[in-house]
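User: Can you help me understand a structure? I only have the sequence.
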Amino acid sequence: MAADFYYYAGGKRIPLELDPEHVAVDVGEVGSRGGRRPDPAAVEGAVELRSGLYLVERSSLPADERRRLDQEDALLPVYQYENALVVILPEVRVEIAEGSETEVHRFLEEADVPNQILTDKGTRLVVRPESGRGEDALRLANELQESVPVEMAQARFLRRVPKRDRSS
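Assistant: Let's start by predicting it. Here is the structure, written out as tokens:
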């Protein structure tokens, strides 16, 4: 089912493959919702991608801790694309095609993914799925791109690429 995971860039569909070895833990999200932060051992040795967001080896998180973090919307999906790891964040950036503002707003109001507009600058929006899930942001962005006239609709993500070997 790898074809189910994709995003659009420059109007082209870019495939993503779910990374079986990693998850991302948003410690800030857990704290902002009043949840119990993960066991410090869970993020020990993890890579901090940005303040409070960690790339964690799936095997280092006990299954019950993964379930709890998932229920608190603090577990974000990690995908692979070429040599990069891609963490999908729960936010969609939208650039609306000229004259399509009403159609885009109507789509968002009726979307299968309940959402809220965080920023509205006319032809540029920032939208967040109410679930706080990266998967829902990816789905919402793709549905927008495929359904209404937009210049761009893309889930926000962080990309981690391997360090270049400077010895060559």
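Now, to help you interpret it: The chain has a mean pLDDT of 87. Residues 134-147 form the longest helix (14 residues). Let me know which part you'd like to focus on.
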